[in-house]
């Protein structure tokens, strides 16, 4: 059962700190609507159709401290990691950087492309993707395909483009 499905629809895992906007982002992608979300205990999953031939299975994993120890259990068959940060909350970027570095060291993610989504770009004083890229030390990941894009889950800005890019990154690996 899983074999044909996973080859047709690559697994993409959404991770990031709590309140980064992962569930809002997934709900917006899947329904086109802004949905009221609450902190994710466990995970949400959905199938995202990008075009007639391309779909992704997207896992949104809870980001609270208590959930992070379980993140590695969601990495089986992961074809791309999407790390979501709140671009309006610079105070949490050091924590995000530490968590991202830790998860990228997982053996299951060797060679897996990374997409960082700088969410909440619609908010005043949100950081630029260059600032976030430097804070997360993304340039040091020379052995990995990675991209960073700004988006707004609430407004739906940049989401479709980001997931089309993710699909392209997966095809490159």
TrEMBL record:
Superkingdom per UniProt: Eukaryota
InterPro entries: P-loop_NTPase, Small_GTP-bd, Small_GTPase_ARF, Small_GTPase_ARF/SAR
Cited PROSITE patterns: ARF (PS51417), RAB (PS51419)
Chain sites annotated for binding Mg(2+): 23, 40
Residues binding GTP, per UniProt: 16-23, 63, 119-122
A GO MF term: GTP binding
Keywords: GTP-binding, Lipoprotein, Magnesium, Metal-binding, Myristate, Nucleotide-binding
Family per record: Belongs to the small GTPase superfamily. Arf family.
Known role: May play a role in apoptosis. May act as a tumor suppressor.
Protein name per Swiss-Prot or TrEMBL: ADP-ribosylation factor-like protein 11
Annotated source species: Cyclopterus lumpus
Name of the coding gene: arl11
């Amino acid at each position: 059962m899983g074999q044909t499905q996973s080859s047709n629809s690559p697994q993409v895992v959404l991770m990031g700190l709590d309140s980064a906007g992962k569930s809002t982002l997934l709900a917006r992608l899947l329904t086109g609507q802004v949905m009221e979300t609450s902190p994710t205990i466990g995970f949400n999953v959905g199938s995202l159709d990008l075009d007639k031939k391309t779909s992704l299975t997207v896992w949104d994993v809870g980001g609270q401290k208590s959930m992070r120890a379980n993140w590695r259990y969601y990495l089986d068959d992961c074809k791309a990691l999407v790390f979501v940060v709140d671009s309006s909350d610079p105070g949490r970027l050091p924590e995000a950087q530490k968590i991202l570095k830790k998860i990228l060291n997982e053996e299951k993610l060797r060679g897996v492309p990374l997409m960082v989504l700088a969410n909440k770009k619609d908010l005043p004083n949100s950081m630029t993707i260059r600032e976030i890229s430097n804070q997360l030390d993304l340039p040091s990941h020379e052995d990995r395909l990675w991209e960073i894009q700004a988006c707004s889950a609430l407004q739906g800005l940049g989401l479709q483009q980001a997931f089309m890019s993710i699909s392209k990154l997966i095809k490159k690996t």
